[in-house]
Amino acid sequence: MITTRDIAERLQLSVSTVGRALADDDRISEQTKFRVRQAAAEMGYVANRAARMMRGASSDVVGLVIPDIRNSFYSTIAHELSKNMEAQGFQLILSETDDDRMVELRHLRELSASRVAGVIIVPTARPHSESVKLLKAVPHVQLLRKHSSLGSQWFGVNDFDALRQATAHLVEQGHPRIGYVGGPAELPTGAERLKGFRSALSGGNLSSEAGCIELGPPSSVEHGRQAVRRLLAGPSAPTAIALGSVQLTLGVLEELSRLDVKVPSELSVVGFGDEPGFSWWGPGLTTIGLPIQEMATGCGLWLMRRLTTKPDDDSAYASVSPGSLILRGSTAPPAQPRRPSRRKGS
Amino acid sequence: MITTRDIAERLQLSVSTVGRALADDDRISEQTKFRVRQAAAEMGYVANRAARMMRGASSDVVGLVIPDIRNSFYSTIAHELSKNMEAQGFQLILSETDDDRMVELRHLRELSASRVAGVIIVPTARPHSESVKLLKAVPHVQLLRKHSSLGSQWFGVNDFDALRQATAHLVEQGHPRIGYVGGPAELPTGAERLKGFRSALSGGNLSSEAGCIELGPPSSVEHGRQAVRRLLAGPSAPTAIALGSVQLTLGVLEELSRLDVKVPSELSVVGFGDEPGFSWWGPGLTTIGLPIQEMATGCGLWLMRRLTTKPDDDSAYASVSPGSLILRGSTAPPAQPRRPSRRKGS
DNA sequence: TTGAAAGCGCTAACAC
DNA sequence: GTGTTAGCGCTTTCAA
C-alpha cells in the first residue's frame, strides 16, 4: 500500500507537505499541490483511515443492528439509511442478530472495537447488560422497538394504533370471535400490538373471551403457518384474524392458500405491513400500511445531524409514525352461522 | 475511551504487560492476567481496532457491493453472508450502487480507505477504470454478474440455462409468439438470459420474429409494469411471456392482476426467482427457482478461506449454480385463435 | 515474568 | 511555503 511517505520520497518533499497538499491546505503552493495530487493518482494512493482515526478523526461508519435483513421492513430500512448515509459520506455496517441477545452482544462488541461513529438498533427483547454498557459509549438510536435501558432516542411506528385499527375494522363488521397472531409480549412492539388488539375488542364491547391469541417468533414465517392452523382447528374457531408482523402474515397467507380457506366468506383477514404480493393474494389483502421508509429516513438524518454537529441536543427524542388501514377484499361481515344462505357467492 | 495505558496505570504495570495479558501471552502469570482482565472488564475497555490495524492486523471487514438491498436476491445474499461472516468474526459493510458506476466507485473508494479485507461485488454494467484499479489491490469475488476486467473469481447462476428452460417450456406448449421482459444486454446476466431465451426459440424452430423483446432496468418494478403493457398492446401480442429478473416479475404480476388478464388462458407466464407471493399469484406462478442461498454461502466461505489462509490459490475460480423450473398454474398451451371452443373452461 | 522503546500512517503544533 | 517533530493506541522486538 502506498503511503504519504512514498509520495514524499518520490517528490523529494516532506510527509507533512504531502499531507497538507492532499488536504488542500492554504499554505501549499498550487504547483506543489498539483504535483502531489498527480503523483498520488498515478501511484494509486488511498488514504489510510485507520491512521486518521488514531489522530482523532471520526470513523464515518454507522452500525445497523437488526434482526434479519430478509424481512422487508428491515431491508427497506437498510436501503433508506444506506442511501442517505452514502450521500453524506457515511458507511453502514450490517449486523444481524436473529433476535438473539448474545449475537447482538457480539456484534456490538465488534462495532465498539471498530469505533463506529453511531449505531442504529432494533434491539432484542432483553439486551445483555454489557450491550447496554457498550451502547452508552456511542451515539445511538433505537428503531421500531424501544427498550428503556437503551436510552430515549427512538423512531418507530404506532404499533398500538395499527392493531387497534385493524381489529376495530373487524369488530365493526360484526365478527364475534377474532384471532390474533403476533410477536411475543416481551418485545415492546409485540406488547403494544397486543394491547391495540385487546383495546379494540373491549372498545367493541367484546369480552376478552372473543379473542384467540397466538404469540410466537415475529420473524418466523413457519410460526405463522402453524399458528393459523391451530387457530382454525380450535373448538371455537374465529371468524376473522388480525396479524401482527410481516413475516407472520406471509406464513398465514401461504397456509390459508394451501388449506383453500375461503376468504372473506369463511374467514376475514387483516395483514400487517404492505408487501408486493399482498395486493394480489386471494381477493386482495386488507392490511395495515406502515410508513417504514419515512421513518428510516428520519432516523438516518437525525443520527447524522447528531454526529456532525455538537451534541448539545442529546435530549430525549421520539418519533411515532402512524399506520393506516388499506381496505381490499379480504374482510367482510361474518357468514350467518348455521343458517346457510340460499344464494351461492354474492 | 479506555486504553491499555489506562489499565496499566491503574494496575501499576507497563502497557506491554497489559497488552500481553489481554492477548493471553504465555509469558504472563495467571495472576497478572486475571488482574488485567478484571480491570479491563470493570473499566469497560474495548480494544481499538484502528490501532491494531496500524500494526498490520487485517481489518476483518468485508465490503458487500450490490445494486439494491430491497431486491430479495440481494437481501438473501446479504443475510447468508452476514451469518457466515459473523461466525468467523468478520463484519459486513453494505454498499448499494443503484447500478450507478459513479456510486459504485465512491463506495469502492471508501472501502479502500477503510482497508477492508475483501470485497464481494455485483458489478455495474461497465465499472469505472478507477474501480477496476481499486479492486486490484484487494481480494474480491464477483457475484451473479461477471465482468472480465474485475478478475476471474466468480460465483453465479446459470442465467443462460435458466431462460432457456423457461422459454423451452413455453415453446413445448406450442406458443407461437413469446415475449421476453428482461434486463439490458449490457449486463452480463442480461445478455446471458437473453441468449438463453433466443436459444430456446431457435431450438423450437421458431424464428426470432416470434420473440417480442422488452429490455430495461432489471431492478425496476415500474419498468416491468410498463413493458408488459406495451407487449400486450402491440399489433401481434405474444401468447406467453418469459421474465428475466425478480423485480421485473413483480411488476409484471402486479400489472397483469390490475389489467385482469386471464392466466394461463389468455397468456402464459414464467417468472424469474421464487418469491413468497409467487405461489399464490393467480393460478400459481410457474417460475425459475435459483439457489441463491447456496451460492451466497459458497461465495462467503470461499472468500473467508482466501482471507484466512495464505493466498497461494489465487487462481481463477468460477461456480455456476443451476436453476430449476418450478411448474405451477400460470402456463398452458395457447388458446386456438379465431376458433373459439364450444366448452367453457376445462 | 516484566519493562522500555520503536514504529505503523497520519495530522498538527511549532519551527524557519 | 515547507520541514521537523511529537503522538494517537497498539504490538513487538530487545533488554533485564
Describe the structure.
The structure is a homodimer of 346-residue chains. Chain A is an alpha/beta fold. Chain A has three domains: 4-47, no CATH class; 61-157 and 293-321, Rossmann fold (3-Layer(aba) Sandwich); 159-290, 3-Layer(aba) Sandwich (Rossmann fold), CATH 3.40.50.2300. Chain A is 42% helix and 16% strand. The first copy, chain A, has helices at 4-11, 15-22, 30-43, 49-54, 72-87, 101-113, 129-136, 159-172, 188-203, 221-233, 246-259, 292-308, and strands at residues 61-66, 91-96, 118-121, 140-143, 153-157, 178-182, 211-215, 240-244, 268-272, 286-289, 317-321, 324-326. A six-stranded parallel β-sheet of chain A has the order 2-1-3-4-5-11, with helices on both faces. The first copy, chain A, has a six-stranded mixed β-sheet with strand order 7-6-8-9-10-12, sandwiched between helices. Residues 338-346 of chain A have low confidence and may be disordered. β2 (91-96) of chain A pairs antiparallel with β2 (91-96) of chain B. Chains A, B: Keywords: DNA-binding, Transcription, Transcription regulation.
Topology:
The structure is a homodimer of 346-residue chains.
Chain A: H1 4-11, H2 15-22, H3 30-43, H4 49-54, E1 61-66, H5 72-87, E2 91-96, H6 101-113, E3 118-121, H7 129-136, E4 140-143, E5 153-157, H8 159-172, E6 178-182, H9 188-203, E7 211-215, H10 221-233, E8 240-244, H11 246-259, E9 268-272, E10 286-289, H12 292-308, E11 317-321, E12 324-326
Parallel strand pairs in A: 1-2, 1-3, 3-4, 4-5, 5-11, 6-7, 6-8, 8-9, 9-10
Antiparallel strand pairs in A: 10-12
The first copy, chain A, binds a DNA duplex (16 and 16 nucleotides) through residues 1, 3-5, 13-17, 19-20, 23, 27-29, 32, 47-48, 50-57.
